[in-house]
């Protein structure tokens, strides 16, 4: 909301029409309409980025800036795998921030308990928030009813998840009109390694299946 532009808009408005009205209710309605229009025309709505939202009450603006700096260091470390200085800088800052977050969270939770210790209702609410007991727990009734009884339903679910990976991989090979060996041969790892089990075709195919699942 741009208050300066709203004030300018109201100052440039001709109020003589409202001042000369004999009906007070009509004058009030017109005044409200002019004011509402000025506010609406000089107000913009901005959706904040997720990184700028305070998700937890113990996260301070300073801590959010530290988190952004950690993320920037992480990106820099991913771009420079072999730079020892950059890797150590990121890891030390990450560990420092992790310890700071735990400290701030613990202090906030202790303050909540101390403030509500004489109010059982608020104290219990604080404890539920601290222990993550506020989430609704739902039973997997739908999965247990896909077959005639719970045991058969669980077996059917397990069978589905044991074959879904293979089916997705086969479907990918059909869409690409290729074979496993040919697709594995086209895969080029970011870091070449010699005499390592991680470079075997079996591991490469698992990576391809994970990426296509």
UniProtKB/TrEMBL annotation:
<protein>
    <submittedName>
        <fullName>(apollo) hypothetical protein</fullName>
    </submittedName>
</protein>
